[in-house]
Amino acid sequence: MTTDAPPPAGSRDHAPAPLTTERFAEIHRSAEFAELRRAHRSFTFPLTAAFVLWYLLYVLLSNYAGGFMGTRLYGNVNVALALGLAQFATTFLIAWCYARHAAGKLDPRADAIKSRTEAGA
Amino acid sequence: MSTALQAAGLAAAGDAGAHRPLIITLFAAFVVATLFITVWAGRQTKDAADFYAGGRQFTGFQNGLAISGDYMSAASFLGIAGAIALFGYDGFLYSIGFLVAWLVALLLVAEPLRNSGRFTMGDVLAYRMRQRPVRTAAGTSTIVVSIFYLLAQMAGAGVLVSLLLGITSDAGKIAIVGLVGVLMVLYVTVGGMKGTTWVQMVKAVLLIAGTLLITFLVLWKFGFDVSALLGAAAEQSGKGAAFLEPGLKYGATGTSKLDFLSLGIALVLGTAGLPHILIRFYTVPTAKAARKSVIWAIGIIGAFYLMTIALGFGAAALVGPEEITASNKAGNTAAPLLALHIGGADTAGGAILLAVISAVAFATILAVVAGLTLASSSSFAHDIYANVIRKGQATEKEEVRAARWATVLIGVVSIALGAMARDLNVAGLVALAFAVAASANLPTILYSLFWRRFTTSGALWSIYGGLAASVVLVLFSPVVSGKPTSMFPSADFAWFPLENPGLVSIPLGFLLGWAGSLLSKDKPDPGKYAELEVKSLTGIGAH
Is residue B49 in a domain? Predict the structure, then answer.
């Protein structure tokens, strides 16, 4: 297979010596990797589904619920604009939640697996 | 579209001649400054990691700024401001889609890509697969997406610059497209990723500063009362309350509503499949830094799109739709016209603001075309030349040399196409690039990273199928023929009713990837998948 050949000496872009397929398979089977994977997927997959649905709901409301979207809330600010701003707010909120989750739940697990592997490979 | 009319529109708005020397001075200052940066960056570009990935030395914040500079194109700045100014609320929906899309990149793509790839999108797509066919496919779709996007920017540059500088002859417009092409080739061949990144950072700062200034002035004019701004915009538009509600542009018929849904889906799923965005994640040292850069980008891009409310509704209220459409039918000059009016038409203040905002728009275009050129030449050199033609035997020096030559070639091709495409519908080309990225690239990226049973056949079906479906559907859509606004208004071979193919081509891309994996004789390689999964989540062995 013609994957990237190891870069020549002198290049600053060299990765540590590649692990064997068996070693990767071993890590893949380990309980701590399973936990890392679960922590990643159980957070990002439902959240992705949620924000895509929330965005689609907003697009569909704009399309098919014009009357509701035109309801005035405050001065000239109507439901459509408020929901649009809510999309901005949820995007910022989700980004912040993910950053917290990743720093608290993903990074420590990933770092532990990585440092152990690279130390005792 | 008559350029004489456009020039007349701008002339009516203020003194057309007086601001030109200032605009040219600011354009020239930006060009000189960025060329200086490029030469400086070029001196530090030694190996392939420098050329493709800027030496992976940028911080999360720097890359977040550069991502913003790479992403906020002329279509965003000029196009969205114009769309809001003319269609009110329906224009604002672009802003929302372009921002929400970043969550796909943040949650699913940025970090795994940084951990498991090296220089291009193809590195990740081909990781578990047979290298040559999948890299060829990845290179093809990278180049197609980038060229569509590039054409839109070039056409935009032609319209904008010729309008502001009063160049109305065809030869003059072609010369402008040629100048943009030469500059982008210089940025990329000399400065590589390092130079391109710095140009994008400078542009992002200029764009945010210019937008903040105009936003502040617009809000100040309305006593910082957003409701009053909206009210004035609705009144000036002549459409009343309907201007602030959905439906002015897309609400007319059942078909146009479907078109809106199609556009919405393409916008939200396209971003995470745009090659020139994806390669930016390789410019930072770790996946954590890649995450930080996306968080910064979401903050910067979000703030910018929020300000498009003030730009667009401000232009509707203070410039008015007649003057905007007289200047450019698509509304692309709404933001510069707003700058002229808010500074005071026929005053030095107005001329200065117009010149500043025009220079910002020019900087925007140059930074984006440099990113696109780099993405396509990287993919040509790394995926197609090094891994397919030379079967992985090329040295780094040969690969980088191939990338530089590819840049020159792409520059020549896009100058030629851009000169022909100078009157094409800019927004249509950008939306098409997003639809192709979401149909051909995103399914394969997600399946590769997260689906154990994905195979080489699945990847090929999905990339080529998504690519073909989106291009063919656009070819037979009202974008190309059958309507007065089409590329060929006198011909009519349109049988696909929607302007954006995403509603059909994106599900098709996902379906083909799934079907191709299950129906073909190809067997997935479980060892390679375990390797990719471990690498992508832990960063073990990352470059």
Answer: yes
